[in-house]
Amino acid sequence: MNIIFYHPFFDVQPWLDGLRQRLPQASIRQWLPGDDQPADYALAWQPPFEMLANRQRLKGIFALGAGVDAILQQERLRPGTLPAGVPLVRLEDTGMAQQMQEYALSYVLRYFRRFDEYQLLQQQKQWQPLAPHQQENFTIGILGAGVLGKSVAQKLVEFGFEVRCWSRSAKQIPGVTSFAGEGQRAAFLDGSRLIINLLPNTPETAGVLNRELFAHLLPGAYLINLARGAHLVEDDLLAALEQGQIAAATLDVFAREPLPAEHPFWCHPRVTITPHIAAITLPQQAMDMIATNIQAIEAGRTPSGVVDLARGY
Which residues does the Swiss-Prot or TrEMBL record annotate as the active site (predicted)? Predict the structure, then answer.
C-alpha cells in the first residue's frame, strides 16, 4: 500500500511518522513535484493539479480538514484535479466539534450577558448596568446542521437556549427546532436574535449572509460566522451594523486571509475578529480517523465522511 501526503504549510514529518505508526504495512511518502510513482491513497490540502490528476488507481483521497471547498474549487477551475470515480473523504470531527462548541458558546454568552457592551462602556469609563437579555427572547439560529452544526446546537440546548437549525435537507436534533429547504429559510430567520453560520461552502451558499437575510432577523441581532468568508457579503454587514439591524458580529473567517490591514473590520467597534482558529485540525485525532478509514476501504467497507461531489459536502 502506497500513500502520498501533501500540505502547503504543515510540518510534514510528524504526520509521516504518525501515519507509519498507525499503518505499519504502508509505504508513506511526502509528495513532491515530479513524483508520479504509484499511490493507493492521497492525503492532501489544496493539492497541486499534477499531484492527483490521472491517478485513476487511487482508492481514496483524504482532505486534511473538515471543509473540502478548496479542493472542489480547484476541480471546477481545472477539471481533472480529482480523478474520476475516486472517493473524496473529509475529516468529520477529529476534535473539531468540541473546539467549535467552545468558540460558539463563548461568544454566545458574551452577547447574551452583554459583555461586549460592557467592554465598550469600560473604554468610555462609564459605570452603567444594562438590562440583561432573557433566554425566552434570545432564540439562536444555526445555519448548517452537519456534524459541527449539530454539535454546537446540542451544546447550546444544554445551556437552556432556544435553538433552531436550518439545512438543505431535514435533520432531527433532540431539543432543536429544524427547518429545511429554501421554502423554510425565512421562517427560520424570523424571530432569531443570534445567527451562527456553519454552512458548507458551495456555489449555492456563496453570499448567503447578505442584506436580505439580515432584514429577516430581529432588529439588533448578532452574527457569528464560523464557516467561510465567502458566505458573507461584507458591505451588507457593514451597512446592517450602521443601521443597527445587526448589533454586533464575530467573524473567524474572511474572503481574504490574512485580513488586509486596511480593512474596515479591524477598527469597527462592533466587530470581533479571530484569525480562522475556531476549530483547527488536530493531527493525532485526524490521523486516527484517516487510518481507520483506510483500513475500512482495504476491508471492503465504506469509509466515513465520503463527500457528495454534486452537493459539495
Answer: 228, 276 (proton donor)
